[in-house]
Amino acid sequence: MAVYVNGRFLTEEPTGVQRFAEQLVVGLGELRDDVVVLTPPGARTLRRANIRVEAFGSGNAFKWEQCDLPARLRRAGSPLLVNLGNRAPLVYRHQISTLHDLLPMRFGDNFSLRFRLQFRVIAAVGVVRRSHRVLTVSDAAAAEIRAFYGLPESRTAVVHNAVDHRSDPRTGPGSSAIAGATPYVLAFGRAGRHRNAGVTIEAVGRLLERTTLRLVLVGSPDPILMREAARLGDRCVFTGRVSDADLEALYRGASCFVAPSLYEGFDIPPLEAQRAGAPVIASQIDVHREVLRDAALYFDPSDPDDLTQQIERVLAHPELRSRLIALGRENSARFDWGRSAAELNRVIVETDA
Fold first, then answer.
1. Where is the Glycosyltransferase subfamily 4-like N-terminal domain (predicted)?
2. Which of 77, 165, 179, 266 has its CA 20 to 30 A from that of 113?
3. Are residue 135 and residue 83 in the same domain, yes or no?
4. pTM surpassing 0.85?
5. Do both 194 and 173 map to the same domain?
6. Are residues 68 and 192 in the same domain?
């Protein structure tokens, strides 16, 4: 019987969760010829060999997922449904579902009350109770999900995020001109308390008097961070949103990349930085230790002085920087969408046997 994929993610802006879903669907299509992606009307197009896309039902994405999608599957004989986007139908049982992390539970102030309540119900009932297996993106996330919901290890499976290895980032066409010629620390200026971007601003600020270093923050400017960064003056640059090629160029040109999060289910940017040849300094949370291993320096995310010291180590010791770059490229190669798709296919075969 064909494998059906919940294609609601194709109606959403392609951020991390949506890219994870799309890359895995593409990978599944390279492994098997019976993949069917079901979508609401008006979804983005996914043109790939061996993948059939079928749009139907209501234009309201929530109603489509909770009503139209289960009804369509029952008419097809209740085949296995694969949910890759942190959601699942509440009234369908033959499914495997993905939960990237428990961020709305851990840092609820990032979200509206309505979103938190909806997430809790769909995660607990659709993703956990109504699904054969719960997929997630790291061993750290799997352990947290099992502890939170009281699941046995057999109910979870890890399908890692990955970075795109199909092009060589060292020879890409992107431009880092926005960062200028002065040495810089690169980080993401992302909103949300769990992102902890303020610690990077504070740590780099302590280096201004004794270095020419600047801080480059990628992403749509967050007003709170812009106020925090005002004391750095023109030594802090907010790039706004950049293309993938320009982001790779920014990684390549950085003195180091900082990943300061307090909480992540996986965290792709430090792997992208490693792949592009930037030495990585990361907060010492479990998932960073799992994913980055010995290919990064670590710091206490609550201690700006610790981060300042790690940045100074990279700047002062070229041999350390070169070693981190070499280890980082080797480490990032462990994460590949083809391998992740193969792991997903293994779970599908086991579940649908």
1. 15-165
2. 266
3. yes
4. yes
5. yes
6. no
